[in-house]
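Dear all,

This email documents one entry for the complex benchmark we are building for the journal club exercise. For each entry we list the sequence lines for every component of the assembly. Then comes the predicted three-dimensional structure of the complex as a token string, followed by one or two observations. Please use this as the template for your own entries, and keep the labels exactly as they appear.
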Amino acid sequence: MRGYAGKYLDIDLSSREIKERSFPDRLLRDYVGGRGLATRILWNRLGKRWEEVDPLGPENILLMLTGPLTGYFPGTKICVSGKSPQCNGVVGSTIAGEFGADLKCAGCDGLIISGRAEKPCYIMVLDDQVEIKDASPIWGRQARETFRYLNKRSIDEIKAKRPTYGEVKDPSILYIGPAGENATRVAVVLAKYSHAAGYGGYGGVMGSKNLKAVVAKGFGPLPEVDDPESMAAMHKSMSAKAYEREQWRRWGTGGGGYYFGAGSSSEPIRNWQEEWHDNEAYSGDEFDKFWVKKYWGDFGCPVTCLKLAVLRSGKYDGTICDNPDYELQAFEGTNLGIFDPETNIHFAQLINEAGLCGIQGGAVLGLAGELYQRGILTSDDLQGIDLRWGNVEAFERLLRLVVKREAIGDVLAQGVYRAAREIGRRKGVDLTNYVVQEKGMAIGGHGIRSGKDYISNPIGFACSTQGGDHGSAARFPPVGDFGELSAILHDSAVYCAFAKSVDNDEIFQFYTAITGWEQTSEEWYNKKALRILQLQRAMLLLGGPDVNWKPKIDDDNPPRFWEPLPSGPYAGKTLNRVSFERTRARYYRAVGWDKNGVPTPETLTSLGLHSVDSKLKEAGFRK
Amino acid sequence: MTQSGQVRIKRDYLLCSGCRRCEIACSLFHDKRIWPEASRVRVFMFIPGVEIPHLCFQCDNPKCVEACPEGALSVDGQTGAIIVDNGLCTACGSCIDACPGHVPHLHPDGSRIVICDLCGGDPECVKVCTDGKWDALTLLQHDEVHPKEQQPETPQELTHRTGMLILGERTLKEVWDE
């Protein structure tokens, strides 16, 4: 086995038992790593009783898995997964940083974490030593303080263990903030200050397990690869292609806050009531003024599309934050009626410090904003908060209630879908029309009505197995470099799709250089990726215990996306129902689902997923 | 004395992207694998955003060479790099203590010290950093280097100095247990 360390840690936090596991080559060839492997492990361990598994209960399993390309590919990530407390299916949620490389250098491909610790804890992986340690001194602490504590403490510990080594470099850390500790459904897993595994809500899963952080440090090399010369040559050639993407390197997504409004009319504004603005005060140039690092990245990255923003004067002096990427410019900005870079950077830092998801957290605050605008939520409901659009102090106060799950905050902490359901029940009104979500997840900042966004496919969100995840949007035809089968490649081989500057065929070649295993694109799209997709689809449909999705009926766009765009150059544009339904039907057929969107017995058995077929039958999905 | 052909690596910490591609390039060249801890240049990140590529400063009168009890260290006449004789090095760590910047470190296999050898005069870390147009590490002729940037300092000292520039004193204190 090449490209893999060959070892996974199986950690039960309830019994504090730590086991080493290995998986057979066949399983790794079929499910690769990251998202694919997580999906299979979850099915094997929880599939039979999937509907009863509470994502925030000790029975859920949290996975942090690398893939065979992790560390070697120029652009490193790790994939966090488990049963999602948002969609109640499986989401592969990737996060940048050195963690994946560090873990593999420690001789470990990933962690499979079950149970619930009695007291707050963190896991430390130092080469072959694995410890569950006390996290009570940092429980309740925000992002920066948590990072500061764990980084210093870990370095001191490693130094004590290697007194003659010389200076010791920092380890890699994945951790949660208070929003995760309090098991909200809108919490992220963090790295550094503001890197996040957002979609899926795995920060809350960590919190529900009393797990504050995982620290990894490896002194070894990355595992051996099959063809070192080709690997090194491709590392170079793929990087050279990435270097050519000047605009992407210069701006990352940091010009998006203006572009997706003014250019493509697909930016959420005041809870998606509009998708167009042309406020130049919100352009990339205006953010650029606060960038102390214009080219910032993580292990092996040739693009370095991140930027570090620091505010050194003014009202928010002392702010230090990954420059809000487009999603945070949108959800911590325009979606709350904020059109000022400094305020947006400040608000993004608050979100990150709390460990809230930029997208899910900003979306639920925006939803509350619209309900306030419409008089459905009053300041009495909001602890006296005057939640006018753009009122930053008001949104800050509400944010703190969400993080602590106090009063209305406890309802909002459940995310847009569940919050709208509960507020609607309390008020006796149907709030469906105000919620821009897909299968329990707020949709990323990419409206599809104008047809000008890069996700302009009408079934992009409706047919995704990861709901509102804009990084895993479905596409018809499903085969090719875009669409969900391609996202499954990125998230299972585990590398950064943003740094990827070559087509998937080169990724397959790189995979072969590393693993020594051949991979044709036909086999990927028609077998492996399709198999992972079926498993994700099945677990999404099984759902439970608190939410369930009806196939076909719930494979739809949110009501707001069917209304005409109210403003801007594409005013009046909307989606066409007939064309949507036709595309959806074609997609169902192309991926082997019946006319209701349920994977057919033929599809499942031809992919060797007999147990999935039986389970869907048993659960009543077959007439 | 400066000799023609001698080179030094100049660093500009404010330009370091934190991509650690120097570590990848160094270990691929010397160890034929991606092995960040074996790399002779190591990027320290005590504070996210304040990344410090740390490697030999090539002092005029290198204390590490003096301190080595085995005579395992020498200055290469051609390049000016510190050369470790692996046959003589006992991994005792005297050179680490002697180095004002605490630059040398053990190879993670524990057998010997690793110090930047300038890849024989054409350092891989500089190539990868300049190919990517970051230019945090650049190559200059020996006498061109501004002495201030070439003073040996520890990762902590460099983090402090760079952190002050990027974050200012108050924020630096907030984010780092120095």
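Observations: Chain A has a mean pLDDT of 97. Chain A touches chain B through 50 residues (CB under 8 Å).
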